[in-house]
Amino acid sequence: MAADGDGARPRTNQADLGALIAQLKASYGERASTSLAVREQHAQGFSFHDIRPADVVVMAKTEAEVADIVVAAAKYSAPVIAYGTGTSIEGQLAALEGGVCINTAEMNSILSVNAEDMDVTVEPGVTRKQLNEHLRDTGLFFPVDPGADASIGGMAATRASGTNAVRYGTMRENVLGLRVVLADGRVIHTGGRARKSAAGYDLTRLFVGSEGTLGVITAITLRLYGIPEAISSAVVQFDDMEGAVNAVIATIQWGIPIARIEFIDEVQMDAINRYSKLNYGLKPTLFLEFHGSTSGVTEQTTRMGEICDEFGGGDFQWTTDAEESRRLWQARHDVAFACVALRPGSQAMATDVCVPISRLAECVLETRKDIDAEGVVAPIVGHVGDGNFHVAFLIGPDDREGDLIIANRINKKLVERAIAMGGTSTGEHGVGQGKMAYMDLEHGEALDVMRTVKIALDPNNIMNPGKIFTI
Ligand SMILES: Cc1cc2nc3c(=O)[nH]c(=O)nc-3n(C[C@H](O)[C@H](O)[C@H](O)COP(=O)(O)OP(=O)(O)OC[C@H]3O[C@@H](n4cnc5c(N)ncnc54)[C@H](O)[C@@H]3O)c2cc1C
After folding, report:
1. What is the tens place of the pLDDT at every residue in 292-331?
2. Adjacent-strand bridge partners of 98
3. H/E element holding 289?
4. Does the predicted TM-score (pTM) go above 0.90?
Protein backbone atom coordinates (compact mmCIF):
# COMPACT_ATOMS: atom_id res chain seq x y z
CA MET A 1 0.00 0.00 0.00
CA ALA A 2 1.30 3.48 -0.81
CA ALA A 3 2.97 5.56 1.85
CA ASP A 4 0.35 7.69 3.54
CA GLY A 5 2.63 10.25 5.01
CA ASP A 6 6.27 10.65 5.75
CA GLY A 7 6.47 9.97 9.50
CA ALA A 8 2.68 10.37 9.88
CA ARG A 9 2.50 11.21 13.62
CA PRO A 10 6.06 12.13 14.55
CA ARG A 11 6.89 11.67 18.23
CA THR A 12 10.07 13.70 18.16
CA ASN A 13 10.16 17.40 17.26
CA GLN A 14 12.08 18.46 14.17
CA ALA A 15 15.03 19.96 16.08
CA ASP A 16 15.53 16.82 18.20
CA LEU A 17 15.07 14.61 15.19
CA GLY A 18 17.72 16.58 13.30
CA ALA A 19 20.11 16.22 16.25
CA LEU A 20 19.42 12.47 16.51
CA ILE A 21 19.96 11.87 12.79
CA ALA A 22 23.16 13.95 12.85
CA GLN A 23 24.45 11.88 15.79
CA LEU A 24 23.62 8.58 14.05
CA LYS A 25 25.16 9.70 10.76
CA ALA A 26 28.30 10.82 12.60
CA SER A 27 28.62 7.41 14.26
CA TYR A 28 27.45 5.11 11.44
CA GLY A 29 28.10 7.06 8.23
CA GLU A 30 26.36 5.49 5.24
CA ARG A 31 24.94 2.78 7.49
CA ALA A 32 22.47 5.42 8.73
CA SER A 33 20.11 6.11 5.82
CA THR A 34 17.38 8.72 5.47
CA SER A 35 16.54 7.79 1.88
CA LEU A 36 12.75 7.50 1.51
CA ALA A 37 13.10 4.34 -0.58
CA VAL A 38 15.16 2.63 2.14
CA ARG A 39 12.86 3.81 4.91
CA GLU A 40 9.72 2.63 3.09
CA GLN A 41 11.27 -0.70 2.25
CA HIS A 42 11.80 -1.28 5.99
CA ALA A 43 8.30 -0.23 7.02
CA GLN A 44 5.86 -2.64 5.48
CA GLY A 45 6.81 -6.32 5.51
CA PHE A 46 4.11 -8.47 3.86
CA SER A 47 1.28 -6.60 5.51
CA PHE A 48 -1.72 -4.66 4.24
CA HIS A 49 -1.26 -1.82 6.64
CA ASP A 50 -0.18 1.64 5.51
CA ILE A 51 3.53 2.15 5.09
CA ARG A 52 4.79 4.44 7.86
CA PRO A 53 8.52 4.87 7.37
CA ALA A 54 10.90 5.49 10.24
CA ASP A 55 12.91 8.73 10.03
CA VAL A 56 16.20 6.89 9.71
CA VAL A 57 17.29 3.28 9.16
CA VAL A 58 20.57 2.14 10.73
CA MET A 59 22.36 -1.09 9.81
CA ALA A 60 23.77 -2.31 13.13
CA LYS A 61 26.72 -4.69 13.22
CA THR A 62 27.12 -5.44 16.91
CA GLU A 63 25.19 -5.58 20.17
CA ALA A 64 27.17 -2.56 21.39
CA GLU A 65 25.99 -0.62 18.34
CA VAL A 66 22.37 -1.62 19.01
CA ALA A 67 22.72 -0.39 22.60
CA ASP A 68 24.32 2.85 21.38
CA ILE A 69 21.50 3.46 18.88
CA VAL A 70 18.82 2.73 21.49
CA VAL A 71 20.46 5.12 23.98
CA ALA A 72 20.63 7.84 21.30
CA ALA A 73 16.95 7.31 20.41
CA ALA A 74 15.93 7.26 24.09
CA LYS A 75 17.66 10.61 24.66
CA TYR A 76 15.18 12.19 22.22
CA SER A 77 12.23 9.87 23.08
CA ALA A 78 12.36 8.59 19.51
CA PRO A 79 10.78 5.19 18.77
CA VAL A 80 12.97 2.18 17.93
CA ILE A 81 11.76 -0.49 15.51
CA ALA A 82 13.91 -3.60 15.06
CA TYR A 83 13.96 -5.18 11.60
CA GLY A 84 14.88 -8.77 10.69
CA THR A 85 13.98 -9.77 7.13
CA GLY A 86 10.63 -7.95 6.80
CA THR A 87 8.40 -11.00 6.25
CA SER A 88 5.92 -10.24 9.04
CA ILE A 89 2.28 -10.02 8.07
CA GLU A 90 0.33 -7.97 10.60
CA GLY A 91 1.86 -4.49 10.20
CA GLN A 92 4.52 -5.06 12.87
CA LEU A 93 7.17 -2.93 11.12
CA ALA A 94 5.27 0.33 10.57
CA ALA A 95 6.97 3.25 12.34
CA LEU A 96 3.67 4.75 13.47
CA GLU A 97 5.36 7.62 15.28
CA GLY A 98 8.54 7.82 13.21
CA GLY A 99 11.87 7.10 14.89
CA VAL A 100 14.79 4.79 14.19
CA CYS A 101 14.61 1.43 12.44
CA ILE A 102 17.49 -0.89 13.41
CA ASN A 103 18.21 -3.40 10.65
CA THR A 104 19.90 -6.51 12.13
CA ALA A 105 20.71 -8.27 8.82
CA GLU A 106 24.46 -7.74 9.27
CA MET A 107 24.38 -9.22 12.78
CA ASN A 108 24.45 -12.64 11.16
CA SER A 109 27.17 -14.62 12.94
CA ILE A 110 26.63 -18.07 14.38
CA LEU A 111 28.30 -17.52 17.73
CA SER A 112 28.63 -21.10 18.98
CA VAL A 113 27.42 -24.58 18.10
CA ASN A 114 27.39 -27.08 20.97
CA ALA A 115 26.82 -30.35 19.17
CA GLU A 116 26.92 -32.53 22.32
CA ASP A 117 24.32 -30.41 24.05
CA MET A 118 22.36 -29.89 20.84
CA ASP A 119 22.17 -26.11 21.11
CA VAL A 120 23.38 -23.10 19.15
CA THR A 121 23.73 -19.40 19.84
CA VAL A 122 23.23 -16.98 16.96
CA GLU A 123 22.99 -13.29 16.29
CA PRO A 124 19.49 -12.07 15.39
CA GLY A 125 20.09 -11.51 11.67
CA VAL A 126 20.95 -15.17 11.00
CA THR A 127 18.19 -16.63 8.84
CA ARG A 128 16.78 -20.11 9.39
CA LYS A 129 18.11 -21.38 6.04
CA GLN A 130 21.57 -19.94 6.79
CA LEU A 131 21.52 -21.71 10.16
CA ASN A 132 20.54 -25.07 8.72
CA GLU A 133 23.15 -24.76 5.97
CA HIS A 134 25.77 -24.10 8.65
CA LEU A 135 24.60 -27.07 10.75
CA ARG A 136 24.39 -29.61 7.95
CA ASP A 137 27.71 -31.35 8.63
CA THR A 138 26.96 -31.68 12.35
CA GLY A 139 23.97 -33.98 11.74
CA LEU A 140 21.77 -31.47 13.58
CA PHE A 141 19.07 -29.09 12.42
CA PHE A 142 16.79 -26.32 13.62
CA PRO A 143 13.21 -27.27 12.78
CA VAL A 144 11.07 -24.15 13.18
CA ASP A 145 10.05 -23.29 9.62
CA PRO A 146 7.72 -20.38 8.88
CA GLY A 147 8.06 -20.91 5.14
CA ALA A 148 9.74 -17.57 4.55
CA ASP A 149 13.51 -17.42 5.13
CA ALA A 150 12.97 -15.24 8.19
CA SER A 151 15.61 -14.06 10.65
CA ILE A 152 15.95 -15.90 13.96
CA GLY A 153 15.55 -12.53 15.76
CA GLY A 154 12.29 -11.82 13.92
CA MET A 155 11.09 -15.38 14.49
CA ALA A 156 11.77 -15.10 18.23
CA ALA A 157 10.10 -11.67 18.32
CA THR A 158 6.92 -12.98 16.62
CA ARG A 159 6.95 -16.41 18.35
CA ALA A 160 6.89 -17.96 14.90
CA SER A 161 6.14 -21.56 14.04
CA GLY A 162 5.04 -23.30 10.84
CA THR A 163 4.71 -26.74 9.36
CA ASN A 164 7.00 -28.60 11.81
CA ALA A 165 5.52 -27.25 15.03
CA VAL A 166 3.28 -30.26 15.67
CA ARG A 167 6.43 -32.36 16.27
CA TYR A 168 9.11 -29.86 17.34
CA GLY A 169 7.16 -26.97 18.86
CA THR A 170 7.25 -23.25 18.11
CA MET A 171 9.84 -20.59 18.97
CA ARG A 172 8.31 -20.65 22.48
CA GLU A 173 9.57 -24.19 23.03
CA ASN A 174 12.84 -23.81 21.14
CA VAL A 175 14.39 -20.62 22.48
CA LEU A 176 16.53 -21.45 25.52
CA GLY A 177 17.91 -17.99 26.16
CA LEU A 178 18.31 -14.48 24.82
CA ARG A 179 20.40 -11.36 25.01
CA VAL A 180 18.30 -8.21 24.84
CA VAL A 181 18.99 -4.47 24.70
CA LEU A 182 16.34 -2.76 26.82
CA ALA A 183 14.78 0.66 26.22
CA ASP A 184 17.30 2.34 28.55
CA GLY A 185 20.27 0.72 26.80
CA ARG A 186 20.91 -1.95 29.45
CA VAL A 187 21.89 -5.32 28.03
CA ILE A 188 20.50 -8.37 29.81
CA HIS A 189 20.65 -12.10 29.24
CA THR A 190 17.70 -14.35 29.95
CA GLY A 191 17.67 -18.14 30.34
CA GLY A 192 20.80 -20.04 29.36
CA ARG A 193 21.89 -23.35 27.91
CA ALA A 194 20.42 -25.57 30.61
CA ARG A 195 17.45 -27.62 29.40
CA LYS A 196 15.47 -26.62 32.45
CA SER A 197 15.66 -24.00 35.14
CA ALA A 198 13.51 -23.02 38.11
CA ALA A 199 15.46 -19.83 38.74
CA GLY A 200 12.95 -17.02 38.93
CA TYR A 201 10.64 -15.44 36.37
CA ASP A 202 10.85 -16.81 32.85
CA LEU A 203 11.92 -13.64 31.05
CA THR A 204 12.83 -15.57 27.92
CA ARG A 205 9.16 -16.38 27.36
CA LEU A 206 8.28 -12.74 28.01
CA PHE A 207 10.51 -11.48 25.20
CA VAL A 208 9.62 -14.30 22.79
CA GLY A 209 6.53 -12.97 21.01
CA SER A 210 6.92 -9.38 22.25
CA GLU A 211 7.27 -8.11 18.65
CA GLY A 212 10.03 -5.65 19.45
CA THR A 213 7.89 -3.82 22.04
CA LEU A 214 10.09 -4.65 25.04
CA GLY A 215 13.63 -4.56 23.66
CA VAL A 216 15.91 -5.49 20.78
CA ILE A 217 17.06 -9.11 20.79
CA THR A 218 20.80 -9.35 20.07
CA ALA A 219 21.50 -13.08 20.55
CA ILE A 220 19.37 -16.21 20.70
CA THR A 221 20.23 -19.66 22.07
CA LEU A 222 18.20 -22.37 20.37
CA ARG A 223 17.54 -26.08 20.79
CA LEU A 224 18.70 -28.30 17.96
CA TYR A 225 17.56 -31.76 16.87
CA GLY A 226 19.20 -34.70 15.12
CA ILE A 227 18.53 -34.86 11.38
CA PRO A 228 16.20 -37.87 11.13
CA GLU A 229 17.62 -41.06 9.67
CA ALA A 230 14.56 -41.47 7.46
CA ILE A 231 11.84 -39.15 6.18
CA SER A 232 8.70 -40.11 4.33
CA SER A 233 5.99 -37.91 2.86
CA ALA A 234 2.40 -38.73 2.04
CA VAL A 235 -0.66 -37.19 0.44
CA VAL A 236 -4.22 -38.28 1.10
CA GLN A 237 -7.47 -36.76 -0.13
CA PHE A 238 -10.89 -36.87 1.54
CA ASP A 239 -14.43 -36.41 0.28
CA ASP A 240 -15.15 -33.92 3.01
CA MET A 241 -13.28 -31.69 5.39
CA GLU A 242 -14.60 -33.42 8.54
CA GLY A 243 -13.01 -36.69 7.45
CA ALA A 244 -9.64 -34.98 7.02
CA VAL A 245 -9.82 -33.19 10.35
CA ASN A 246 -11.07 -36.26 12.23
CA ALA A 247 -8.10 -38.19 10.83
CA VAL A 248 -5.82 -35.46 12.20
CA ILE A 249 -7.47 -35.64 15.64
CA ALA A 250 -7.09 -39.43 15.72
CA THR A 251 -3.42 -39.12 14.72
CA ILE A 252 -2.70 -36.75 17.59
CA GLN A 253 -4.71 -38.87 20.06
CA TRP A 254 -2.86 -42.01 18.99
CA GLY A 255 0.41 -40.25 19.74
CA ILE A 256 1.84 -40.77 16.28
CA PRO A 257 4.88 -38.46 16.33
CA ILE A 258 4.00 -36.90 12.99
CA ALA A 259 6.44 -34.20 11.84
CA ARG A 260 4.09 -32.27 9.56
CA ILE A 261 0.36 -32.53 8.94
CA GLU A 262 -1.02 -29.83 6.70
CA PHE A 263 -4.64 -29.37 5.64
CA ILE A 264 -5.38 -27.86 2.24
CA ASP A 265 -8.94 -27.14 1.15
CA GLU A 266 -10.27 -27.68 -2.36
CA VAL A 267 -9.85 -24.02 -3.37
CA GLN A 268 -6.22 -24.08 -2.26
CA MET A 269 -5.66 -27.44 -4.04
CA ASP A 270 -6.86 -25.83 -7.25
CA ALA A 271 -4.36 -23.01 -6.73
CA ILE A 272 -1.54 -25.46 -5.95
CA ASN A 273 -2.28 -27.64 -8.99
CA ARG A 274 -2.20 -24.65 -11.31
CA TYR A 275 0.86 -22.99 -9.79
CA SER A 276 3.03 -26.04 -9.08
CA LYS A 277 1.87 -28.04 -12.11
CA LEU A 278 0.46 -30.91 -10.05
CA ASN A 279 -2.73 -32.81 -10.73
CA TYR A 280 -4.35 -33.72 -7.44
CA GLY A 281 -8.15 -33.94 -7.14
CA LEU A 282 -9.93 -30.79 -5.96
CA LYS A 283 -10.72 -32.22 -2.54
CA PRO A 284 -9.82 -31.54 1.09
CA THR A 285 -6.27 -32.90 1.33
CA LEU A 286 -3.63 -33.70 3.94
CA PHE A 287 0.09 -33.37 3.23
CA LEU A 288 2.03 -35.41 5.79
CA GLU A 289 5.63 -36.00 6.77
CA PHE A 290 7.15 -38.58 9.13
CA HIS A 291 10.61 -38.47 10.71
CA GLY A 292 12.47 -41.26 12.49
CA SER A 293 14.38 -44.45 11.96
CA THR A 294 13.67 -46.38 8.77
CA SER A 295 11.50 -48.90 10.60
CA GLY A 296 9.85 -46.20 12.72
CA VAL A 297 8.88 -44.17 9.68
CA THR A 298 7.43 -47.25 7.95
CA GLU A 299 5.43 -48.07 11.07
CA GLN A 300 4.12 -44.48 11.41
CA THR A 301 3.22 -44.30 7.75
CA THR A 302 1.37 -47.62 7.81
CA ARG A 303 -0.60 -46.66 10.92
CA MET A 304 -1.44 -43.28 9.40
CA GLY A 305 -2.68 -44.97 6.22
CA GLU A 306 -5.03 -47.08 8.37
CA ILE A 307 -6.33 -44.02 10.23
CA CYS A 308 -6.98 -42.12 7.01
CA ASP A 309 -8.80 -45.16 5.62
CA GLU A 310 -11.01 -45.25 8.72
CA PHE A 311 -12.06 -41.61 8.13
CA GLY A 312 -12.81 -41.92 4.42
CA GLY A 313 -9.40 -40.99 3.02
CA GLY A 314 -8.77 -42.06 -0.56
CA ASP A 315 -5.62 -43.51 -2.06
CA PHE A 316 -2.77 -43.02 0.50
CA GLN A 317 0.23 -42.08 -1.66
CA TRP A 318 3.53 -42.10 0.22
CA THR A 319 7.17 -41.87 -0.71
CA THR A 320 10.66 -41.78 0.77
CA ASP A 321 12.04 -40.35 -2.45
CA ALA A 322 13.77 -37.10 -1.46
CA GLU A 323 13.09 -35.33 -4.77
CA GLU A 324 9.39 -36.21 -4.73
CA SER A 325 9.08 -35.02 -1.11
CA ARG A 326 10.94 -31.82 -1.90
CA ARG A 327 8.51 -31.11 -4.76
CA LEU A 328 5.52 -31.72 -2.51
CA TRP A 329 6.74 -29.43 0.28
CA GLN A 330 7.89 -26.78 -2.16
CA ALA A 331 4.31 -26.74 -3.47
CA ARG A 332 3.10 -26.31 0.13
CA HIS A 333 5.56 -23.49 0.78
CA ASP A 334 4.50 -21.76 -2.43
CA VAL A 335 0.84 -21.51 -1.43
CA ALA A 336 1.04 -17.73 -1.04
CA PHE A 337 2.19 -17.34 -4.65
CA ALA A 338 -0.27 -20.00 -5.81
CA CYS A 339 -3.15 -18.07 -4.20
CA VAL A 340 -2.20 -14.83 -5.88
CA ALA A 341 -1.93 -16.58 -9.26
CA LEU A 342 -5.64 -17.51 -8.92
CA ARG A 343 -6.43 -13.85 -9.44
CA PRO A 344 -3.72 -12.10 -11.45
CA GLY A 345 -2.76 -8.68 -10.14
CA SER A 346 -4.10 -9.40 -6.66
CA GLN A 347 -2.23 -9.56 -3.35
CA ALA A 348 -2.94 -12.07 -0.60
CA MET A 349 -4.06 -10.77 2.78
CA ALA A 350 -3.32 -13.69 5.09
CA THR A 351 -4.93 -14.18 8.47
CA ASP A 352 -4.39 -16.96 10.99
CA VAL A 353 -6.24 -18.30 14.01
CA CYS A 354 -5.71 -21.33 16.22
CA VAL A 355 -8.38 -23.34 18.06
CA PRO A 356 -8.46 -26.46 20.23
CA ILE A 357 -8.23 -29.27 17.71
CA SER A 358 -11.66 -30.67 18.66
CA ARG A 359 -13.24 -27.42 17.34
CA LEU A 360 -11.14 -27.23 14.17
CA ALA A 361 -13.59 -28.81 11.71
CA GLU A 362 -16.44 -26.58 12.94
CA CYS A 363 -14.28 -23.45 12.79
CA VAL A 364 -13.05 -24.16 9.25
CA LEU A 365 -16.54 -25.09 8.00
CA GLU A 366 -18.17 -21.95 9.44
CA THR A 367 -15.41 -19.85 7.91
CA ARG A 368 -15.85 -21.48 4.50
CA LYS A 369 -19.59 -20.68 4.76
CA ASP A 370 -18.81 -17.01 5.50
CA ILE A 371 -16.41 -16.83 2.55
CA ASP A 372 -18.89 -18.43 0.16
CA ALA A 373 -21.74 -16.23 1.40
CA GLU A 374 -19.66 -13.16 0.52
CA GLY A 375 -18.93 -14.63 -2.93
CA VAL A 376 -15.14 -14.18 -2.71
CA VAL A 377 -12.22 -16.49 -3.47
CA ALA A 378 -10.22 -17.25 -0.29
CA PRO A 379 -8.21 -20.47 -0.01
CA ILE A 380 -7.76 -22.15 3.40
CA VAL A 381 -4.62 -23.96 4.45
CA GLY A 382 -3.55 -25.00 7.92
CA HIS A 383 -1.00 -26.51 10.25
CA VAL A 384 -3.88 -28.60 11.49
CA GLY A 385 -1.96 -30.78 13.92
CA ASP A 386 -1.88 -27.65 16.11
CA GLY A 387 -5.43 -26.49 15.31
CA ASN A 388 -3.92 -23.57 13.35
CA PHE A 389 -5.20 -22.44 9.96
CA HIS A 390 -4.85 -19.55 7.53
CA VAL A 391 -7.26 -17.86 5.16
CA ALA A 392 -5.77 -15.94 2.24
CA PHE A 393 -8.05 -13.17 0.98
CA LEU A 394 -7.25 -12.04 -2.54
CA ILE A 395 -7.28 -8.25 -2.68
CA GLY A 396 -7.53 -6.07 -5.82
CA PRO A 397 -6.67 -4.99 -8.36
CA ASP A 398 -10.14 -3.78 -9.50
CA ASP A 399 -11.78 -2.86 -6.21
CA ARG A 400 -9.10 -2.93 -3.56
CA GLU A 401 -11.05 -1.02 -0.91
CA GLY A 402 -14.17 -3.13 -1.45
CA ASP A 403 -12.16 -6.35 -1.22
CA LEU A 404 -10.51 -5.19 1.99
CA ILE A 405 -13.88 -4.37 3.58
CA ILE A 406 -15.16 -7.88 2.82
CA ALA A 407 -11.91 -9.52 3.98
CA ASN A 408 -11.94 -7.60 7.25
CA ARG A 409 -15.61 -8.49 7.82
CA ILE A 410 -14.94 -12.22 7.39
CA ASN A 411 -11.72 -11.96 9.40
CA LYS A 412 -13.55 -10.34 12.33
CA LYS A 413 -16.10 -13.15 12.45
CA LEU A 414 -13.30 -15.71 12.18
CA VAL A 415 -11.27 -14.25 15.03
CA GLU A 416 -14.29 -13.84 17.30
CA ARG A 417 -15.34 -17.41 16.55
CA ALA A 418 -11.85 -18.74 17.32
CA ILE A 419 -11.72 -16.90 20.64
CA ALA A 420 -15.23 -18.08 21.56
CA MET A 421 -14.06 -21.65 20.91
CA GLY A 422 -11.25 -21.25 23.44
CA GLY A 423 -8.70 -20.46 20.75
CA THR A 424 -6.62 -17.44 19.85
CA SER A 425 -6.71 -14.57 17.37
CA THR A 426 -3.32 -15.61 16.00
CA GLY A 427 -1.47 -18.91 16.21
CA GLU A 428 1.75 -17.64 14.68
CA HIS A 429 1.62 -14.40 12.67
CA GLY A 430 1.45 -12.25 15.79
CA VAL A 431 -0.64 -9.22 16.71
CA GLY A 432 1.14 -6.25 15.12
CA GLN A 433 -1.60 -3.78 14.28
CA GLY A 434 -3.87 -6.32 12.56
CA LYS A 435 -5.05 -8.24 15.63
CA MET A 436 -4.86 -5.41 18.19
CA ALA A 437 -8.63 -4.90 18.14
CA TYR A 438 -9.13 -8.41 19.54
CA MET A 439 -6.63 -8.31 22.41
CA ASP A 440 -9.17 -7.14 24.97
CA LEU A 441 -11.62 -9.89 23.99
CA GLU A 442 -8.88 -12.51 24.12
CA HIS A 443 -7.04 -11.43 27.27
CA GLY A 444 -9.45 -9.34 29.39
CA GLU A 445 -7.77 -8.04 32.55
CA ALA A 446 -4.53 -9.76 31.58
CA LEU A 447 -4.09 -7.12 28.87
CA ASP A 448 -3.66 -4.53 31.61
CA VAL A 449 -0.98 -6.71 33.20
CA MET A 450 0.82 -6.73 29.83
CA ARG A 451 0.59 -2.92 29.77
CA THR A 452 2.02 -2.79 33.30
CA VAL A 453 4.99 -4.92 32.23
CA LYS A 454 5.52 -2.76 29.14
CA ILE A 455 5.46 0.48 31.13
CA ALA A 456 7.86 -0.95 33.72
CA LEU A 457 10.41 -1.90 31.05
CA ASP A 458 9.79 0.93 28.60
CA PRO A 459 8.26 3.90 30.48
CA ASN A 460 8.58 6.26 27.51
CA ASN A 461 7.07 3.71 25.13
CA ILE A 462 9.87 3.95 22.59
CA MET A 463 10.04 0.25 21.67
CA ASN A 464 7.86 -0.35 18.57
CA PRO A 465 4.96 1.79 19.88
CA GLY A 466 1.39 1.14 18.71
CA LYS A 467 1.80 -2.63 18.34
CA ILE A 468 0.00 -5.42 20.29
CA PHE A 469 -1.86 -2.81 22.38
CA THR A 470 -1.96 0.93 22.91
CA ILE A 471 -0.72 2.53 26.10
C1 LIG B 1 5.04 -16.40 2.44
C2 LIG B 1 5.05 -16.27 3.94
C3 LIG B 1 4.71 -17.38 4.71
C4 LIG B 1 4.72 -17.28 6.10
N5 LIG B 1 4.39 -18.38 6.84
C6 LIG B 1 4.50 -18.32 8.19
C7 LIG B 1 4.28 -19.49 8.98
O8 LIG B 1 3.96 -20.56 8.47
N9 LIG B 1 4.45 -19.37 10.31
C10 LIG B 1 4.81 -18.20 10.92
O11 LIG B 1 4.99 -18.16 12.14
N12 LIG B 1 5.00 -17.07 10.20
C13 LIG B 1 4.86 -17.11 8.86
N14 LIG B 1 5.09 -15.97 8.12
C15 LIG B 1 5.35 -14.69 8.81
C16 LIG B 1 6.82 -14.34 9.04
O17 LIG B 1 7.70 -15.09 8.24
C18 LIG B 1 7.18 -14.50 10.52
O19 LIG B 1 6.40 -13.62 11.29
C20 LIG B 1 8.65 -14.25 10.83
O21 LIG B 1 8.90 -14.70 12.14
C22 LIG B 1 9.09 -12.79 10.73
O23 LIG B 1 10.51 -12.75 10.79
P24 LIG B 1 11.32 -11.53 10.11
O25 LIG B 1 12.77 -11.78 10.31
O26 LIG B 1 10.88 -11.33 8.72
O27 LIG B 1 10.84 -10.34 11.05
P28 LIG B 1 10.40 -8.83 10.67
O29 LIG B 1 9.24 -8.88 9.75
O30 LIG B 1 11.60 -8.11 10.20
O31 LIG B 1 9.96 -8.33 12.08
C32 LIG B 1 8.84 -8.88 12.71
C33 LIG B 1 8.65 -8.28 14.11
O34 LIG B 1 9.73 -8.68 14.93
C35 LIG B 1 10.43 -7.55 15.42
N36 LIG B 1 11.86 -7.87 15.40
C37 LIG B 1 12.61 -8.26 14.35
N38 LIG B 1 13.88 -8.49 14.74
C39 LIG B 1 13.92 -8.22 16.08
C40 LIG B 1 14.94 -8.24 17.06
N41 LIG B 1 16.19 -8.58 16.79
N42 LIG B 1 14.62 -7.89 18.33
C43 LIG B 1 13.35 -7.54 18.66
N44 LIG B 1 12.35 -7.49 17.77
C45 LIG B 1 12.63 -7.82 16.50
C46 LIG B 1 10.07 -6.41 14.48
O47 LIG B 1 10.18 -5.16 15.13
C48 LIG B 1 8.64 -6.76 14.14
O49 LIG B 1 7.79 -6.34 15.17
C50 LIG B 1 5.08 -16.05 6.73
C51 LIG B 1 5.42 -14.94 5.94
C52 LIG B 1 5.41 -15.05 4.56
C53 LIG B 1 5.80 -13.84 3.76
Report:
1. 999 999 999 999 999 999 999 999 988 989 898 988 898 9
2. 96
3. strand 285-292
4. yes
- Residue 82 Cβ contacting ligand 1 at under 6 Å: yes
DSSP state, 50?
Answer: P
Q: Is residue 445 part of a domain?
A: no
Domain edge (last residue) among 397, 412, 430: 430
Q: How far is ligand 1, taken at its centre, from the CA of residue 219, in Å?
A: 16
Q: Which atom of ligand 1 is nearest to the CA of 151?
A: 25
| Structural domain harbouring 29 | 14-103
- For the Cβ of 79 lying below 6 angstroms from any atom of ligand 1, the answer is no
Q: Are 272 and 335 in contact (CB under 8 A)?
A: yes
Domain end (from 83, 103, 123): 103
Helical H segments across 29-62, by residue range = 36-41
Q: Name which of 111-120, 327-336, 364-373 the model is least confident about.
A: 327-336
Same-domain pairing of 362 and 408: yes
86 lines ligand 1 (CB under 6 A): yes
Task: State whether the beta carbon of 92 lies less than 6 angstroms from ligand 1.
Answer: yes
Please give the distance, rounded to the nearest whole angstrom, from the Cα atom of residue 422 to the centre of ligand 1. 25
Handedness of CA 375, 379, 383, 384 (dihedral sign): positive
Task: Tell me, yes or no, whether 152 and 269 share the same domain.
Answer: no
The total domain count for the chain is 3
